Structure formats: structure tokens, C-alpha cells
What we know:
The chain is mainly α. The chain has one domain (23-156). It has 7 helices and no strands. The chain has helices spanning 2-20, 24-48, 50-61, 68-88, 92-110, 115-131, 138-156. The longest helix has 25 residues, at 24-48. The N and C termini lie far apart (72 Å). The mean pLDDT is 94.
Amino acid sequence: MHDMFTVWRRRFVAVRALLAQMPLSLILLGMRISMGFVFFNAGLLKARSFDFAVKLFANEYQLPIIPPEIAARLAMIVELGAPLFLFAGLATRLATLPLIGMTLVIVTLVYPASWVESLLWGSVLVMILTRGPGVISLDHLIERWLVSRDRKAAVLAPAE
Length: 160
């Protein structure tokens, strides 16, 4: 029995080690794409039937302060724009901020019962915000270019 336990424990440790080798950048790419599509599809829906979106904001969402027409247009712009940045991995951390804000508005003012889904979205967006887009992104390429440019400038700079 003890040998069986040892065999299973070794297999578990081996599988865990294999899973730990999964590049974080692939996971972040999946997160960026999935969150991007969640919001982009919502934006497309608003764009396809904008009058219906305005009615939703007026009758169901009932956001305080912001008129339904403006709220619907702002939501549509954010939902269509921010995901493009997530997909490309460009200004990625900045792009998560309005989506996190929208998620907070949804869970606090519109659909409080959706807290489980909102927690999932918020967690994924905060992961992207805090860890960045990963190496499969334009942000990473730009950062590499800037670092290499700075190194070249440092080498070419005259000594003081």
C-alpha cells in the first residue's frame, strides 16, 4: 500500500511540475482574448441595435446621473475599443481599466446577482493589469525595442 501511495505521489509531482512549465504568456494571451471577446461581442450587439441598447439603459439598467443615450454610446465605444487593445497587447494595462470599471458598475448598479461572473471577469482583468500582457504582445515588443535603444544610447554616449 505504501508503494502505491509513493507511485501516485511521484506521478502527481511529475504532472504538477509539467503544468508549472506552461508559459504565463500563453495563459495571459488566453485571458486577453477571452475577456476581449466578452466585451467586444457586447459592443457589437449594441452597435447592431443601438436603439434597443438605449432602451435597455433607460428601462432596465437605469444608471444614475448618465442619460441612457450617453451611457449606451459610452459603453459601446469602450466595449468595441478596449478589446482591440487587449487583442493586440497594446497599452494592455491601460485598456483593462475601463473594463474593470464597467464590471464594477454592472455588479454594483445593474446586476448585483451577477457577482460570480463579475468576480471572474474582474479577476482575469486584474491579473492582466498586474502581470501585464506577456511576451506575446505589442507592449512586449515595444518594451524590448526601448530597452535595446537605451542600451545602444548608453554605449554610444561619451564617458563623463
